[in-house]
Amino acid sequence: MKIKTIPINKIKENNWNPNELDEAGFNTLVQNIEDSKVGYTQPIEVRETGKDEYEVVDGAHRLKACIEAGLTEIQCVIS
């Protein structure tokens, strides 16, 4: 596995996400990311789909929360 800082606009959502998160839980996640100096505690896992293009494998809600919190790049685990 490799950890890499990736611009958020290079990461696409995966259409399949079995997890659900209600609005209150999502807002708490966004607030935690905004309050944290690193943004989040567990990197999002992505797979490379092309040159500098990635798709979420694990962490779709964290990706959306990072976008909502105004982050422009995030550390990801590339699987």
Query: What is the radius of gyration computed over CA atoms, rounded to a whole number of angstroms?
Result: 12 Å
Number of helices: 2
Number of strands: 5
Cα distance spanning the termini: 6 Å
Q: Secondary-structure element sequence?
A: EEHEEHE
What is the helix content? Answer: 25-40%
Main sheet: strand order: 1-5-3-4-2
SS-based class: alpha/beta
Strand content bin: 25-35%
Describe the protein in words.
The protein has 79 residues and is α/β, with parallel strands linked by helices. The protein is 28% helix and 34% strand. It has helices at residues 23-35, 60-68; strands at residues 2-7, 11-12, 44-50, 53-58, 73-78. Strands 1-5-3-4-2 form a five-stranded mixed β-sheet, with helices on one face. Strand 3 (44-50) and strand 4 form a beta hairpin. Helix 1 crosses helix 2. It is globular, with a radius of gyration of 12 Å. The model has no long low-confidence stretch (mean pLDDT 88).
Compact summary:
The chain has 79 residues and is α/β, with parallel strands linked by helices. It has two helices and five strands, in the order ββαββαβ. Strands 1-5-3-4-2 form a five-stranded mixed sheet, covered by helices on one side.
List key phrases describing it.
28% helix, alpha/beta, 5-stranded mixed β-sheet, 79 residues
